[in-house]
Amino acid sequence: MYQLLKPLLFLFDPENVHHFVTRNLKRFNSLPGGQSLSRAVWSTEDKQLEKEVFGLKFKNPVGLAAGFDKNAELIAEMGNLGFGFIEIGTVTPLPQPGNDKPRMFRLPADAALINRMGFNNLGVDVAAARIAAYRKSLRPGQQALIIGGNIGKNKITPNEDAVNDYIKCFDRLFDVVDYFVVNVSSPNTPGLRELQEKEPLMQLLATLQQRNIKNGVSRPILLKIAPDLSNEQLNDIADIVKQTGIAGIIATNTTISRHGLISAHKSETGGLSGKPLTERSTEVIAYLHQISEGAFPIIGVGGIHSADDAAEKIKAGASLVQLYTGFIYEGPGLIKRILTRLKSL
């Protein structure tokens, strides 16, 4: 069904289509029987797919990557499509509109997207309230989805004050999310990637770890990294994980590389996602897994457009995988195909 609709959807601006599709997904799920029908068609319930990673029990290892549900509007709806976990955000302390439009571009010939959204979101208070409302809406005995909170800094915040923005998001979301992702790897906030350098990154992660306990509870903290890092920088990342004691890595974010692209929008600025990232993101996963000897979990994301793509990331050392661009190109049926493939590993 989705593949029949996709040519029509792809005629229109991708950001407008995103809002159109998500609005109607919410409407469908609000209809009597809508949620049950969605789960019956798309979701896969199988104890064999359950996985425990960094102390959390995931109903399956396929998650929705950050960027799709920036403002925590679609948690239940995405769960009904079969995702085992949802990562909301990136959220910032204050609401911000993001960069000027147009800021998202399809590259169909490359099965890719370029975005320069710029952390557009309604602010951490809105996200926290919506996650709390989702948890409150659960029926007695109903299992909540695992929810990750992807946090960043406001554009107007200078890098020397960035740690305060991350602290504000961390403190506000602590009671409602299951894990955190520190995003210092988006190419769309000026200067943000400078925080990936070893010294500022150590300071940021160590500060969050010091705050990472409340009423005897701590949350797994993960670091999302760019695919454009050198092996030397990846060595530093592995060392930082060890020294700070954070829970793991998400590999990878979007890339600034434009190698081999053929689509019309290939020269647009922003982060590139989709099939062009498939090989590089898997390489990063494999390298980190090898040099760390599997010392920490890795969530694999980047260029997963098929069940085999996901399986390759698991084989390379990923414990879990996430979808975004592949979900847009292949539709919700991709989730079930991946889960069927992973059961055979």
TrEMBL record:
It is found in: Cell membrane; Membrane. Substrate binds at K70, N115, R116, M117, G118, F119, N183, N188, N253, T254. Pathway: Pyrimidine metabolism; UMP biosynthesis via de novo pathway; orotate from (S)-dihydroorotate (quinone route): step 1/1. Residues 49-344 form the Dihydroorotate dehydrogenase catalytic domain. It catalyses: (S)-dihydroorotate + a quinone = orotate + a quinol. The keyword tRNA processing does not apply. It is a peripheral membrane protein. The active site is at S186. GO terms for biological process: 'de novo' pyrimidine nucleobase biosynthetic process; 'de novo' UMP biosynthetic process. FMN binds at A66, G67, F68, D69, K70, T90, N150, N183, K224, T252, G274, G303, Y324, T325. It holds the Pfam family DHO_dh. Monomer. The gene is pyrD. InterPro entries: Aldolase_TIM, DHO_dehydrogenase, Dihydroorotate_DH_1_2, Dihydroorotate_DH_2, Dihydroorotate_DH_cat, Dihydroorotate_DH_CS. Belongs to the dihydroorotate dehydrogenase family. Type 2 subfamily. This is Dihydroorotate dehydrogenase (quinone). Its EC number is 1.3.5.2. Catalyzes the conversion of dihydroorotate to orotate with quinone as electron acceptor. GO terms for cellular component: cytoplasm; plasma membrane.
